[in-house]
Amino acid sequence: MKRSVPLAFLLSATVLASQTQITAPDNNYTPAQDVELGQRAAAEARQQLPLTRDDAVTSYIEDIGRRLTTAIPAEFRHPEFRYTFEVVNVREINAFALPGGPMFVNRGMIEAAHAEGEVAGVMAHELSHVVLRHGTAQASKATKYEIGQIAGAVIGSIIGGGWGQVISQGTQFGLGAAFLRFSREYERQADILGSHIMARAGYDPRDMANMFKTIEKQGGSGGPQWLSDHPNPGDRSAYITKEAQQLRIENPIRDTRAFDQVKAHLRQLPPAPTTEQATRNRGNRPTGTSGRDFPRPTGRVEPPSSSFRTYNEGNLFQVSVPSNWQEIQSNTSVTFAPNGAYGQANGQTVFTHGVEFGIGRNESHDLQDATDELIQSLRSSNPSLGRASGYERVNVANQRGLRTVLRNRSEITGQDEVIQLVTTQARDGNLFYAIGVAPGDDYSDYRRVFDRVFGSLQLARLR
Ligand SMILES: [Zn+2]
Fold this sequence. Notes:
Number of helices: 17
Number of strands: 16
Shape: elongated
Helix content: 40-55%
Bound molecules: zinc ion
Structural class: alpha+beta
């Protein structure tokens, strides 16, 4: 007699053993703090974003969400977490999930998907960030922030897209970004755990890889927000496919009717607006200027005042700037510019004279690599940007820094402009940057101002 039972047992044990094991990263916050932070940020999101009340769409996404949460492996369940699933009526292919459970899926994401498994794939990935508590784990690497302080900033960094593109598309300023922009290591974890959750919920994990390809294809200039928050760790499709081969899909879902119905239903609705269109009148404005719309900058400005004032960001840095430069603070950057120098052109915010400060990603922890990457991202919104000098080692706020000079053709004046870029490491290991912009003809005057501004810079110390 063949001993089929033990053999089958052995076989399934082998299959289980070859699944990649995931361990949640260290975290200084409690799960209850995840919940508090997520609930506050979600309340803000519900005020700021146009949620779909269309039951056909919302109940469909809720059903997928419930199926996925039921499939969370036991070791990653947090009894205090509350999972909710809402649909945002905007066009961009994006989705985000907040600590402790609230998830928001853009209508554009559903419209871009070719199958239910693709929608479920993005949701399983987002859900994995939540159960692995990646947002607060990431924040644990930096200062311990107050929960209340964080909540608004998180949403600012979601909606901030349009406002954040001062000239720095692809970079994020400060707090909120830390909770939604993940490292490649966390991405890989969310892909792997996401594939386990999918298989347990009856979905083929390869659909997750397919959706990522769909998102990449629809990239456009700068790529969709989702990709900048969830960077490809490399070989994404390959390792998801490999992981999928180790997994048994339980009770596979083969019925595509609900997906087809929702897609057909969405096609009958008026097209979704962009996030910027949808949030324009919801009070999401750079804060320094009491919420007015910015006209196109004229590029005609008064010279920098010789008296300076001190600006204290509090959490990150302090700097002195000419007293006739206004601060334009969004949740993703802060710019100081004279009247006439800052405004909107072709749907983007631009400035012709002044300085900007912000934080960029620095995963390699190599200052020059991170600065190269920043210049690359600046180039994606400023195609004629080029280098005018190599790197010069400088002292920035009493630590090692780099300075380089760039040239660009101003969209506003049509003239050459000179950009001085100074970078150093921020206390959380990310890249702190300062950018000075002036027309080429005035650069020698402005350079003295930039030297004084950048020379006054103080960074908050690591605790
Ligand atoms: Zn991710």
